[in-house]
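Lab manual, section 2.4: Encoding a predicted structure.

Procedure: take the sequence of the chain (583 residues), apply the prediction step described in section 2.3, and record the output as structure tokens. A sample record is shown.
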Amino acid sequence: MEFNVTMTQFNSATKYATDPFSKIDPPRVVLDQFASQALVKMQEDLAQKVEPDLAISEPTRQDISDYLKQKIREKGISENNIYDLSERLDQTVLDDISRLLLSNTFIYLVIIKEALYEEVSNIEVSNILDQTALYNAVLRKAHDVHRKWFLARLLAEVFDARHIAINASSPRWQKLDDLTLGRTIPIAEGKVEPAVMDILSTLYQKGDLPHYLQLYIDERSNIPKHLFTPSIQESIIDYLMKLGLEIQDKQEFKDGKYDEYFALAYSEALKYTTVSEDPIDMALKKGGKVDWDFSVDVFDATEEQGVIPANIKATGALDYVYYIGEGMRVFDVANALVLRWASGALDIPEGDAAAALYRFHKRRSDRSTPEERAMLYKRVLNRGNGQLLSSMMPNTAFPRYWHALMSEVTQYISKKEGTGTGDYQPSRSQLYQAVKNLQYNLTEYMTGMAHLQVTEDYAHLQEAIDLVKMEEIINHFGGRRKSLWNVIESVAKQDLGVTVQTSVMRDLAVEGNKVYQWVADFNEAIVREEEFKNFLKAAEAWIIAQASLEEANGFAPNGKGQDNFGDFNDDFNDDFDDDFDDW
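Recorded output:
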């Protein structure tokens, strides 16, 4: 095979004199010796992988590089295309390992070739959209494939130096990949070995528990698998470690001897994600504090660049409270049930439901008032007609940023569907920019006391939902659909005089929260395809639900008219107050 594409020829027509494959700057750290060794070994691995494609014996590294460049040019990629791609990648916020790999000319060549032939093989790259597609494909290859390869080599170098043997058949070693990929291993001088040893320490501490937890989820638990989120699984393992649980006999595990331990650990883990400690309760305890990751109930079972993910997730929880608590009228429905019970119209003389009704009634003065909640909605989301204090400013930009994100999602899906089933990928640059705008906006506005307010309001909402779905209350209302949603719809119609679209509000709350969660964790350099697809599905479901709400309320398709979020904005706090002044 002839190789007629030399480095000089490839660079001769570029608009700049520099080598387009060497434009990406390496990470600004002194490289650790283990990282340097792993980089060399990885290049050797890649060379051996490419060699069989060459029709010459014992090719040199230059032969392989020339072959890769020829394959790239066969796809219609020009020197200027490579320069523009490299310049864009260099300006991207990259983790140190991804930047290290892309700044290595040989590895960069391999990544581009693989991206062209495996990711975007059927496109015309002269189009600007395809340039973005190639950019995204290179990032995915660098992060999802070659970064893992490099980490494996890095671990091997440390293990060899420390004479650590791996038993691939042991359950605990099977979790090594997950532990490694789930952490950031620094590659600066003197940092690699301590980071790897910390992973090993965690591996030995957790032992085989992750393996048996997965078996419990897959084979023994009656709890739906989707409820075992990563954070729940981590909490379960932490709890079992505190108990000092060790599983020595696999047969005993299969016989169910340890089931009660895993069930108990799951119950304890839920306390963290369901606000087990209410801010009102903790305020009465000296030194008390609330830990909640702003996860919300999906009803399946009844700082990089100044971005603060917790602020965005807290906003997602507030948005959820807004749609479920105010849009679905859950706060008002719970108050109406208490009022019915107090007046004798709801005959529940004793038991858990009576105790829940009485507790909800007695705590009313400690809870945020509708006016206080409305103030928070207005300040953070610019929704409703809440009155702000003179020192407060509403987040007037939020509706615009949210609308821009949903519009970009709609356009992306439309372009994607219009291309058929090929490998063509529409540009994501404007969509990503809309995400970043939302990140910065919510980082700025979800501040101060808002975190505790959201936590308290979600605890209040949980208490209201738990009250409404009490068995005695659901049975009292009967009907064909004995469910939480039937009670809400019935009480809202009979006592509040409004029709509530529970399914639409539920979709707006749950799917919207999924969007916020993805936005909070978004980093353009490491977007995973599966997570991006899930984000698109959630956003599309939210858009459909919003369209249904607008149609039901007689809103114009262009959003003009009464209120983009439904007429409950204007009067959600007018029908039922917390103070029961009419007693």
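Check your result against the sample. Residues 7-156 form one domain.
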